[in-house]
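Q: Convert this sequence to structure tokens.
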Amino acid sequence: MSVARKRILVAIDWYLPGFRGGGPITSIANLVDALGDQYDFSIVTSDTDDGESAPYENTATDQWVELGPNCRVWYCSREGRSYRHFRKLLGETEYDLLYLNSMFSLRYTIFPLWSSRAAKPEVPVLLAPRGMLHAGALRLKPLKKKVFLKVL
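A:
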């Protein structure tokens, strides 16, 4: 009897085919490559690259897009980046772990976290702050970050 594969839902501001978001895109792509034979990944991200306003060409939005046998991506349109949208999406999506790839992202940390807690409070959450809590990083826009951390 085979054991069902665990499903990881990743929320990240930018993902492939984007590249302007730098290291986080590469880190998640490498995570999927390294663990894709053991886990099924669902990635929720924006339909634009960092700093861009035009959506990726030839990429479907607000629906699941298969990127490989164990990876699918939901590219959120500008309209699809609301809390209401995330609550509906996370309520309908099956996952065993929510992986948040940022600390200070309203749309890809706070909205998914609140949505997951409302829809599936039993599902564990892994928060990867990626150096965002380092003293040097906290000195940039300190008031905004202190308020954000208090709310979180």
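The first strand starts at residue 6 and ends at 11.
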